[in-house]
Amino acid sequence: MNDVVVGPLDLAARVDEALAVQALAFGLTHDEIGVRRHIVLRHLTSPGARALGATASDGRLVGFVYGMPNDRGHWWSTVVEPYLRYVGQDHWLDDSFVITELHVHPAFQKRGIGRTLITTITDGADEPRSILSAIDADRSPARTLYRALGYEDLARRVVFPSAPSPYAVMGAFLPLRRG
Predict the structure, then answer these.
(1) pTM score above 0.90
(2) Core-most of 89, 97, 134, 158, by most CB within 10 Å?
(3) Nearest partner of 40 among 103, 124, 90, judged by Cα
(4) CB 135 within 8 A of CB 142
């Protein structure tokens, strides 16, 4: 990670660069990028929303994370709430900082960049815990990282409209585990 610096990111100004990273890391189509652009810009108007970026020495954005205090009225919360309620975990939607997106360019993965992004952004959260969703694949790099940081499964096989795969909702108490 020596050639990458993590710091505050004006995500609205660099949204296209961030979505290009997300497209590579997550396999998005051109149409999906367009839809997500509007979603990101809308999220950034939410109270407490903030972003961090990972910038290579040449100035390229190679990773980013953004999140905000969770709001039960947001679309994501309305989708996951019935799944969490079913397993008695819907209280996690209150007093939580939600990690909305976290992506690292594939050429820069496995260097600790994702770990640094998520721990740094949650270290600045006022909430006592964090929640997120990830594709529900037990051995994926993302889920492995989240578990190492202390996130535990709250609900599994969560279906988002138009998503090709089910997701898991995970939660962790803050600060996140280190080491």
Answers:
(1) yes
(2) 97
(3) 103
(4) yes
